[in-house]
Amino acid sequence: MKKFSWLTILIVMLSLAVPVEGASDLPESHEFYDEITYLIDRDVLKGYPDGTMRPNAGVTRAEAAIMISRLKKFDVTPRATGFPDVPASHKASGSIAAAAKAQLIKGYPDGTYRPENTITRAEMAFILSRLFIVPFRADVSFTDVSPNMGVYEPVQQILAANITNGYPDKTFRPNATVTRGQFSAFLARGLEPKFKNDATIAQSYLRDKTKSYVYDTEYGIERHAYNYVPARNGLPMGFIWSIYKDDGSLLTDSTEFETHERYTFGLPYSESYSELEYPAEVGRAWYTDTMYAAPRIISGIGVTVETQFQTFTNAIEITVDPNPEFLEEGHTYYMVEGFGEVKSVKLDGTVTKELIAVE
Fold this sequence. Notes:
Layout: H1 6-17, H2 33-41, H3 61-72, H4 93-101, H5 121-131, H6 152-160, H7 180-191, H8 193-196, E1 212-217, E2 220-232, E3 235-245, E4 250-258, E5 262-266, E6 272-277, E7 285-286, E8 296-306, E9 311-320, E10 331-336, E11 340-346, E12 351-358
Antiparallel strand pairs: 1-2, 1-12, 2-3, 3-4, 4-5, 5-6, 7-8, 8-9, 9-10, 10-11, 11-12
Helix pairs in contact: 2-7, 3-4, 5-6
């Protein structure tokens, strides 16, 4: 029987400790390691023949088409593409032809595709808004994206879908190029709720999309769960918060958006309301000069509020005064980072909504 030396055994053991992906330039400490390995496991992303992943290299328009085609499981047989600069002999011709036919990618006004160009964040926004079901729009607060820009609506969509949140300086940087790691993160966020949790602003009030939240309300027990709903009543939905009654039946669906300027809660294809305005400061008020909703004002910061779930010591208190015009009796509600609204109380002390469990 063949014998193995301790050195051989040690080498084998060390090799088993290397991530299964085996990319020499993808340490577990990389910012997008989880997203990249997630796509590798789904056969969407692959490395290079030399064993590298090159997560910090720019992703080309050809590579983007290849990844999209793998995700959609398109037929990528090499063929004519309709683009003069992408002949059938090009390594990505099948992917580019398939993705273009599905209207997920487009060429330039001169008819070219420019497969070796690195994609920009604007191009990425267009691609992802077509690739995923993102029928909703969020207010765009980026200083470098305006309504007169063609990319404005795609950015609204991927912002609402928690695929991006821009940069801390409130820019989107539409002309900046995208790395393979960044593109992997954007794709992963479009596919998996746990990655959407990373696309939030600092000190976000959005809830964890991998958990369910149970509330005791004036109408009964409600369970809010983030799930994928392709369509509801003939309307496209995608990932959305669904509200279920205690018996498990659907009550309604809801939307929850956040930008650098506000946190918004509402109903799909219907009205939505700004529940909190940023920066949060005592005395900050909104809806003060509109027929849209009753005025709201931040009446406290760092407030302690007790709920059946737990006692929070860092809540923001928002007060809505009585307003007959809006049939508003007056109430106070409390917002907490990472939990959204945790409690709502009428001015007479009646609790109308209270967080009782997070599962």
